[in-house]
């Protein structure tokens, strides 16, 4: 858990030690206007917790945190998640990722090619396969995610060959190694052997270059229309880019037809891949940084996303989810225990129990300090207070608390807003009767 730290000369508490119940997971949501440093703080924390993977960024970002005041313990795994191409997380190269260190970046910025969506999908699926290879029990995490989304416990991956058949034959028959194979002779031998096994046989030369992977509780099975392959060899070719992702399909419960993730909305893709990516890597005592998960998401999916995180990963202990967001829906659907909202502007921490299950207008006014025009929560609060004080000619304790809310919101409203006009009247009543 990350309990507290000093950032830009402010001390932030990420957990309320008085209410936190160990060893359950904690959720800390960072809110604040653009420019208050939410994304920079997340990136700096990653650099602090997994510095060996971010040498280029470390010199720039590490000074933003006063290191002696970072209170963190038992952090075995660091995961950074973003569906925005503008996140500030450090990037791990493909080959560093094979070292199986404790940092995983699940985002768009290290993708290859122009199709960022497909590149992001390929990264998540590659990580998913890698985690199952290391430990087939990891499938249970992925199975829970699929079940929550109402899919069967199976993933079908379609791969395509990224090099020509002529080049494959040159590698197999003439020993012509492409540049991607020069650096590591042992790896080169494995790749050549895989190509010889899959494409070298006479019958393979008339087959489709596409290959499928079935991923389920039994493991990973590789095949095309006529042949079953060694999945280890297929995965070897994936890792070096000879085989690349073409599509990923799931099966809805109660149906037998494949559902292509590429055909889903950008929001559905974002949620499915993001949570599958986390499920591929999460362990007890992980810290998971998520930057603006609401990007591309309809408000309904914003609610589903946070509910999925809260529900799906309950079986893990000691994990800390730290989320930077502008979404009132995410705040509203937090749970009452072990969830906290931290303001970047004031460095204050609030137990989510005080904020959840309220309207979007409440969240906009109270949490995000951006009430907008004709905010219904403020309008109702102001009208009720106006009627009550007008009748009794005094402010009781509850009235004074509501008055402070209205007073702090007064300067955030447009002059033409009728709610501001009503609050102005209440300010005058306070001078007379308080």
Automatic annotation (TrEMBL):
<keyword id="KW-0067">ATP-binding</keyword>
<feature type="domain" description="AAA+ ATPase">
    <location>
        <begin position="24"/>
        <end position="345"/>
    </location>
</feature>
<protein>
    <submittedName>
        <fullName>Putative ATP-binding protein involved in virulence</fullName>
    </submittedName>
</protein>
<dbReference type="GO" id="GO:0016887">
    <property type="term" value="F:ATP hydrolysis activity"/>
</dbReference>
<keyword id="KW-0547">Nucleotide-binding</keyword>
<dbReference type="GO" id="GO:0005524">
    <property type="term" value="F:ATP binding"/>
</dbReference>
<dbReference type="InterPro" id="IPR027417">
    <property type="entry name" value="P-loop_NTPase"/>
</dbReference>
<dbReference type="InterPro" id="IPR051396">
    <property type="entry name" value="Bact_Antivir_Def_Nuclease"/>
</dbReference>
<dbReference type="InterPro" id="IPR003439">
    <property type="entry name" value="ABC_transporter-like_ATP-bd"/>
</dbReference>
<dbReference type="InterPro" id="IPR003593">
    <property type="entry name" value="AAA+_ATPase"/>
</dbReference>
<dbReference type="Pfam" id="PF13175">
    <property type="entry name" value="AAA_15"/>
</dbReference>
<dbReference type="Pfam" id="PF00005">
    <property type="entry name" value="ABC_tran"/>
</dbReference>
<dbReference type="InterPro" id="IPR041685">
    <property type="entry name" value="AAA_GajA/Old/RecF-like"/>
</dbReference>
């Amino acid at each position: 858990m990350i309990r507290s730290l000093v950032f830009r000369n402010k001390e932030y508490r990420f957990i309320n030690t008085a209410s936190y119940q160990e060893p359950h997971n904690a959720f800390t949501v960072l809110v604040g206007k653009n420019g208050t440093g939410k994304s920079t703080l997340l990136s700096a924390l990653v650099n602090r917790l997994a510095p060996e993977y971010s040498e280029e960024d470390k010199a720039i970002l590490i000074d933003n945190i006063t290191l002696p005041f970072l209170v963190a313990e038992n952090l075995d795994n660091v995961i950074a998640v973003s569906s925005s191409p503008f996140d500030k997380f450090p990037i791990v190269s493909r080959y560093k990722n094979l070292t199986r260190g404790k940092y995983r970046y699940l985002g768009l910025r290290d993708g290859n090619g122009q199709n960022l969506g497909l590149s992001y999908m390929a990264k998540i699926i590659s990580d998913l396969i890698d985690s199952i290879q290391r430990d087939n029990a990891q499938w249970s995490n992925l199975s829970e995610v699929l079940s929550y989304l109402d899919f069967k416990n199976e993933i079908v991956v379609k791969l395509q060959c990224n090099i020509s058949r002529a080049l494959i034959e040159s590698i197999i028959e003439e020993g012509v190694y492409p540049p991607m194979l020069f650096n590591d002779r042992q790896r080169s031998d494995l790749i050549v052997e895989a190509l010889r096994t899959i494409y070298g046989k006479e019958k393979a030369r008339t087959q489709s270059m596409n290959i499928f992977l079935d991923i389920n509780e039994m493991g990973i099975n590789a095949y095309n229309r006529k042949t079953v392959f060694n999945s280890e060899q297929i995965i070897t070719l994936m890792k070096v880019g000879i085989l690349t992702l073409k599509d990923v399909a799931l099966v809805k419960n109660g149906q037998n037809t494949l559902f292509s993730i590429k055909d889903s909305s950008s929001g559905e893709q974002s949620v499915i891949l993001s949570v599958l990516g986390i499920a591929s890597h999460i362990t007890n005592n992980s810290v998971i940084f998520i930057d603006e998960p609401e990007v591309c998401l309809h408000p309904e999916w914003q609610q589903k996303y946070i509910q999925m995180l809260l529900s799906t990963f309950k079986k893990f202990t000691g994990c800390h989810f730290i989320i930077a967001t502008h979404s009132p829906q995410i705040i509203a659907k937090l749970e009452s225990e072990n969830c906290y909202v931290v303001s970047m502007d004031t460095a204050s921490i609030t137990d989510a129990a005080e904020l959840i299950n309220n309207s979007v207008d409440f969240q906009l006014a109270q949490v995000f300090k951006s009430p907008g025009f004709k905010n219904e929560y403020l309008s109702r609060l102001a009208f009720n207070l106006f009627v009550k004080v007008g009748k009794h000619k005094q402010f009781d304790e509850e009235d004074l608390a509501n008055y402070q809310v209205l007073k702090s919101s007064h300067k955030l409203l447009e002059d033409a807003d009728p709610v501001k006009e009503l609050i102005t009247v209440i300010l005058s009543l306070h001078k007379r009767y308080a």
